[in-house]
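Subject: for your reference before the review

Hello V.,

The reviewers asked for a structural picture of the protein, and I figured it would be easier to keep everything in one thread rather than splitting it across files. Below is the amino acid sequence we used in the manuscript, unchanged from the supplementary table.
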Amino acid sequence: MAKIRLEEAEAAGECLGVKNQNRHFLKFFDQELKNKIDDAVEKITDIVKNANRFVIPSAKNKHPDHQATHDIAIKVAKELNLYDLEFYVYAIYNPLKAQGEHLVKIRVGNFRFKVYESLKLHKSQFYTKDMGWQSLAMRDRRRERFGFYKLEDKGKNYNF
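And here is what came back from the structure prediction:
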């Protein structure tokens, strides 16, 4: 299954136009990332040390790998003192409760079709009951909503 997932991720990256040298895979087992947070931070530190923006899943996430991804991003940002870093936080399984200056709506235009096509390349993900309707929702959505935060906002908002 891991080999299939990596091949699907490579194909999705290709579909989206992400250059090969900009694709990085941690290669941890599904549902186990929460047990590998320190290892993940170590693996990505050099990759993200000059980043100015992270797009990450929200906090309080029911999916253990999504929550771990959130936690890893926060931990590496703190370790690298990336206090000017912009966090664009998205919600999948829980509501996005960002409001006012923390709510950002981005027009995705025709890019949404490319995202939909790349999601369809993740065939192994479609065994979940939600993936079918979620991918269709992505295809039809004209705007994507994000919570916009800085590291100093951590813990002051529902999703961050």
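For the response letter, the relevant points are probably these. Strands lie at 53-57, 86-90, 103-107, 143-149. The mean pLDDT is 91.

Happy to draft the paragraph if you're swamped.

O.
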